[in-house]
From TrEMBL:
Keyword Electron transport attached: no
Family: Belongs to the UPF0382 family.
PANTHER family linked to this entry: TRANSMEMBRANE PROTEIN 256 (PTHR43461:SF1)
Matching InterPro entries: DUF423
Taxonomic superkingdom: Bacteria
Name the UniProt record assigns to this protein: DUF423 domain-containing protein
Organism listed in the record: Pseudomonas triclosanedens
Keyword Transmembrane: yes
Pfam families reported in the protein's UniProt record: DUF423
Keywords in alphabetical order: Membrane, Transmembrane, Transmembrane helix
Amino acid sequence: MLRIFLMLAAFFGFTGVALGAFAAHGLKSRLTAEYLAVFQTGVHYQMLHALALFGVALLSTHVSGTLVSLAGWAFAIGILLFSGSLYLLTLAGLGVGIITPIGGLFFLIGWALLLAAALRLG
């Protein structure tokens, strides 16, 4: 899992920085302030969870079991659903409604799984 989660962390980190720069320089004049803030929220959560994926990758080398791996997959799915839906909303006008909170739920599941993994260490 180390390689997969490191690759996902790097991919989401790279694209998060690129999308943040794109928003700051390329979208500033094209989006309303409200939509620009929505886009930046997507970037913010993508970057936070790219770092979480990096942590999961490192943790997977020290903690055995499936909870850490499931947390990593939950974070990756959360990024795709939460941040991806916000990007679609702002760039394409596609209001995908329920997808954003489902992505947020995957973030919560990922953190809960990490908590469960930590409790098992005790």
